[in-house]
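QUALITY CONTROL LOG
STEP: pairwise intake check
CHECKER ROLE: data steward
CRITERIA: each record must contain a sequence immediately followed by its structure tokens, with no blank fields

ENTRY 1 OF 2
RESULT FIELD BELOW
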Amino acid sequence: MIFYERFFELFILISIAASSVFLLRVEATTIFIIEFSILILALVFITFYKLDYFINLSKKYLVKVPFVSIDQEEEIVIQKLSLWRAAPVFVITFSSLVLEFIRIWIVALAFGIKLEFIELSICFCLSIIIGLISQIPLGVGFMEGSLSLMIENMGVPSTTSIAIVMADRMISMYLVLIVGLIVSKLSLNELSEVLDE
């Protein structure tokens, strides 16, 4: 389920970002990022559907590694969801992304900046893709920098665009991390009390 959610998220992000070629004036760098993302998505898709084959093929070579113990006779089969069963995952993923687009648009409105919803959504998708390509957790730095630059190119002063992006990131990521740390600490205390009884 997690794989399908991440795959659909990437698919939606890349599809919306690719629409920038037709809806916005984009640079060659942006087109390269979109093409690179489509290539990665295609590789992930092929790898997932041929995962059984790759795992069973790798067993021949893993047996030669001294500290790995593998049953050569056992056939590994990865169960995959049908398109019908994966559809709800797609709908939930798409809905959550639309809510994210609405959130950043509302944050921009809170700063007194009215931006085109579609254009802002495309820029948001591109910045998430750039953050993912950077391979840094949460795309820290890359996502914020690219999105603030794109918002600035939409006619927003640089200080305001940075403030919009930082406020959105505080709401979407860092606030959630803080709440998660507090809840996990409380849960850990309750769990230790139950274990002590």
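ENTRY 2 OF 2
RESULT FIELD BELOW
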Amino acid sequence: MSVVQARSVTWRQVARETGIHPSTLTRMGQGRQPDAPSLAVLSAWAGLNPADFVGERTRETKSDLLLVISRALKSDPGLSPEAAQALEDIMRIAYERFSRQSN
């Protein structure tokens, strides 16, 4: 699920909230890469690290995955800090339990 879907916003709303021109978002939807400033703004808006999208993907470790989950929860405007922390705790516990079972 994309950040746009998770936040239940339209691409027009993303353009208004970020100041990114809608045509830039359209071009990205067609597979073209954004310019560096647009990538930085969109990454900050989505709570993502732009470095995750350039170069070779390295093998993610457990801590990397949990960090991504934590950042996503904490950047969700629909969650209070307490709710984000509770969900983070639940995800960490579930991840640890199920990742042991798959090994």
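INTAKE CHECK: passed for both entries
DESCRIPTIVE NOTE, ENTRY 2: The chain has a mean pLDDT of 81.
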